[in-house]
Amino acid sequence: MQEKSNSNVVERISKGESFASENLANIDLSNQSLVGADFSAADLSGANLKNADLTDANLNDANLAGADLSGAILIRSYLVGANLTDATLENANLFGAFLSGSLLSGTNFRSADLRRATLGCPQCVPTAPFGNLTTFENANLEEAIFGEIKLDGIVLLGANFKGAYLYEVDLSEAIYRESDLEGAITKQGRN
Q: What is the C-alpha to C-alpha distance for residues 124 and 121, in angstroms, rounded to an integer?
């Protein structure tokens, strides 16, 4: 098996190679340009992706459990069905990212930019979709789309929901203030 050092991975990405379904657990790719990389179904559990540029990356069905993506750039990235359990995305830029069907249990989105991101799980029932206090504290969720999900054990304090679309979202178990949802769009209209 070929060693997967960070320089080897970066070199292969620059050549347009895919890392689909590869084991990259605990790899350190912090501060690297990984633009457009294909990590679909890859094991990136425990990976250090701090401040990495993952713009337009394919992380669909990837295992990112316990990964550190603090300050990472994930603009328009695909994280559909990704396991983000206990992952840290604090101060990450997820503008326009697709996180539908992702497992978000204990995930840290503090102060993250999730403008125009898509979250939710309309046709799946993952175990504990939001548990272990997933936090969106002070996150920017402006114009984000949350579709058909119950937000259990989620902290929304200080989040910006201006223009966010909350379609059939159950907030009965979420921690928030009414003012946090100001400007959000629900079935009943704008809050």
A: 6
What is the 3-class SS of 69-87, one letter each residue? CCCCECCCCECCCCECCCC
Q: What are phi and psi of 180, to 5 degrees?
A: -65, -25
pTM, entire model: 0.90
Q: What is the dihedral of CA 103, 40, 71, 124, to 10 degrees?
A: -20
**What tokens were used for 99?**
């996180």
The residue ranges of every structural domain in the chain are 1-191
Question: What is the number of other CB atoms lying within 10 angstroms of the CB of residue 189?
Answer: 6
pLDDT at residue 43 in the model: 98
**Per-residue confidence at 130, pLDDT binned at 50, 70, 90?**
low
Contact assessment for residue 33 and residue 53, using Cβ atoms and an 8 Å cutoff: yes
CATH class of 1-191: mainly beta
